[in-house]
């Protein structure tokens, strides 16, 4: 796994700055006022810091941005970076400033010295999120060590919070690594092995193989993978950190590669379909995060792992498949495979675990990208509270999410002449009809949300918190949702 940067929290020791040979980061007020750290650096550099703070360059520097002075006179440091940020800034501003500090790195060793800053945990979170690079497939590269010491009383006070955030980021990096991995590496079997290894953290992990899936009647899931040599699997991950309450459920689409099957995709861009397991990747990352931080909640994660390939045995357009629920589905387009995977595992999750609520994630439709681009995931839900709670959590974490409609009027687009339903409608409202399809496999009294993450799971340019490629979107938002609404607080019951 790509390692997180190493963060050490310590008391403020001004005398150490004089001879430090790495990169020193100072947090400077927007009005240019210097704290005790700034005054010490200014003295060592014979007034260079004061001259810069009085310059038009600092005046023009945007809040949250960073200016770097290389090899400053009077210090052994390779560089001194000045981050322009107010002590009373918002959580989002602190997190964004941390991203800018990471982008401005010229050394593998840092000291962030601040006498007073209440958002230091958020700044560290942003710095860690941005310091990611997927190098597993490069023969001559390895992750560079990134060692950060954070000095100051506020940092010491926030040590527990910082450690909790870093535990969650272990899950984010895990999701990014899974989503970035090529399909010949992350096969269904290797994916399952990676999830089984999470049992070392205290998760209960169970792998259901094809024979058992046949017995359970998961025919819509199995039909997707029947054209591939890679065996289809369902992996169940259970975290039981709460009490006797029913678990909250996370369900993920894990198509390790999607050719479109017989409804073959165009060649251009097909290489990006290694990310079609992004929903399962997020579920895996959340489960790891919960275990890493010892969450006081009961959560079950269920992922369906398949590969959608064309072959003499592949499912065909026009085939009718009976789901685990018992409904029949006419397959109109074999490239609308994710909903077939989710249909069975949504039903299985409800039947086996009777969860208190359920969220599924999937890189499901290109239509959601047309509607929301790469800034927002689409949220479809049968429950106003669950939808609101998730969007609130996502917004707090800087992960864009926007509620989309579900309505009976869209159901007529899924009517089939020969089966209970078709797996696709027309081109109109493509992401909505996909949500309507999934809703048919959700029990009437089950709070449920479907997150279409096709536009946010992996992107071609850098995002707010990640370089281009896999983003790990959703791990932090779902962790916050669980912490805020499904985690036992002392002796209180989980929930509201």
What does the main sheet amount to?
Answer: 8 strands, mixed
Query: What topology, given as strand order, has the largest sheet?
Result: 7-8-10-9-13-17-14-15
Q: What is the alpha-carbon Rg in Å?
A: 25 Å
Q: In percent, how helical is the residue content? A: 25-40%
Low-confidence stretches: 491-496
The termini sit apart by: 36 Å
- General shape: elongated
Helical segment tally? 16
**Structural class label:** alpha/beta
Instruction: Give the percentage of residues in beta strands.
Output: 15-25%
**How many strands appear in the DSSP assignment?**
19
The average pLDDT score comes to 95
Summarize this structure briefly.
With 496 residues, this protein is an alpha/beta fold.
Would you mind describing this structure in some detail?
By secondary structure, the protein is of the alpha/beta class. It is built from 16 helices and 19 strands. The chain is elongated and about 85 Å long. It starts with 5 loop residues before the first strand and ends in an 11-residue tail after the last helix. Mean pLDDT is 95; it is low at 491-496.
Layout of helices and strands, plus pairs?
Elements lengths: L5 E5 L12 E6 L7 H9 L3 H6 L2 H5 L5 E5 L8 E6 L6 H13 L5 E5 L6 H11 L16 E5 L1 H5 L1 H22 L7 H9 L7 E5 L1 H7 L2 H7 L7 E8 L7 E11 L19 H15 L5 E11 L11 E3 L5 E3 L7 H16 L3 E6 L4 H6 L4 E5 L2 H13 L4 E3 L17 E2 L7 H10 L8 E5 L5 E2 L9 E2 L4 H11 L11
Parallel strand pairs: 1-6, 2-4, 2-5, 5-6, 9-10, 9-13, 12-16, 13-17, 14-15
Antiparallel strand pairs: 3-4, 7-8, 8-10, 11-12, 14-17, 18-19
Helix pairs in contact: 4-5, 5-7, 7-11, 10-12, 11-16, 14-16
